[in-house]
Amino acid sequence: MLKIAFVGYGNSVRNYHLPYLVNVNEIVVKKIFRREQDRINDMKAEAWYPDVEFTSQIKNIYLDDEIELIVVNTHVDTHAEYAIGALKHGKNVLVEKPFAHNAEEARRIFALAEEKGLIVMANQNRRYDGDFLTLKKVIDSGKLGNIVEIQSHYDYFNPVAVKPGFGMLYGLAVHTLDQMWSIFGQPDRVVYDVRSFYYPGEGDDFVDIDLFYGGTKVTIKCSQFVKKEFPKFVVHGDKGSFIKYSSGHQVKNPHGPTVVNFSPEEEKQWGELYYRDEHGQDRLEKVPSEVTDYGLLYRALYQSIRTGAAKPVRDDEVLGVMQLLEQGVAHARSQKAEA
């Protein structure tokens, strides 16, 4: 049994962590830290988890000898502060994405964990999205042959000017870049097109990043100007193509605990695989979707803590993605200088 605590109790914890831990029998959530100002107007939400102790004193988590893992789920400005505090108190740490402000800050956190003999890891839970797991299954089947091109989309429609900043890179592209890094590793070459329609040089409401791996091109696209849904993944190989629309987002419950539906997707949502088989015959297959389950990340992390198994998200992967994000920001800012 592994007892854990959360630092933060916002949307991410309520919808993408706690609901998926229901089926992870090896892990028990003992405590959740919230700032007092966050608790005052939201006490009713604490009643949703009566077996969890809520506290506004971070030392109540740091000094609890039963707690072995602390999940940091706050604004990125405090990720390093809480991660370092947890490590100094002998706790393993899972940090929400983006892991840190930059790669240098991330290196300092990883170095401290190594010094303490503890595990710290980024919560790249989108590796366990059903649509991404389905994509990996198709690639691994070999039916596409050698991969020539992958397009990955994470879009929505909200054509209004929000405040300047790089939330699309650090909020959305951080997931899709990590997904592709987990398959292909470090790219040979990267081409950036990061722009803001409203705040040129100061924002990123449109992201288009091309990653090149030998003869394979991977395109990451995120935009707030997509009214009609585009496929989540479009893949072309020298034997065929695969198209998969998004598996959708977790249905949130603002009035009580979110309950995850682990049922398989309906056939109408399955991806389509077009390929030429070994006999030269053209085939069309509907590919059953894998089920989204972020609890899989926790199960893998549990094994890392208990048995020393490799972490599901490696340090070098986190650092590589952080560097891609930093370079994307630098590209966006250069647009203003050129203008």
From TrEMBL:
Q: A Pfam family for this UniProt protein? A: GFO_IDH_MocA_C
UniProt GO MF annotations: nucleotide binding
Which Gene3D superfamilies does this chain map to? Dihydrodipicolinate Reductase, domain 2, NAD(P)-binding Rossmann-like Domain
In this chain the Gfo/Idh/MocA-like oxidoreductase N-terminal domain maps to 2-123
Q: Which residues form the Gfo/Idh/MocA-like oxidoreductase C-terminal domain?
A: 136-334
Which InterPro entries does this entry report, sorted A to Z?
Gfo/Idh/MocA-like_OxRdtase_C (IPR004104), Gfo/Idh/MocA-like_OxRdtase_N (IPR000683), Gfo/Idh/MocA_oxidoreduct (IPR051317), NAD(P)-bd_dom_sf (IPR036291)
**What is the name of this protein?**
Oxidoreductase
- Naturally occurring in which organism (per UniProt): Superficieibacter electus
Q: What is the lineage of its organism?
A: Bacteria, Pseudomonadati, Pseudomonadota, Gammaproteobacteria, Enterobacterales
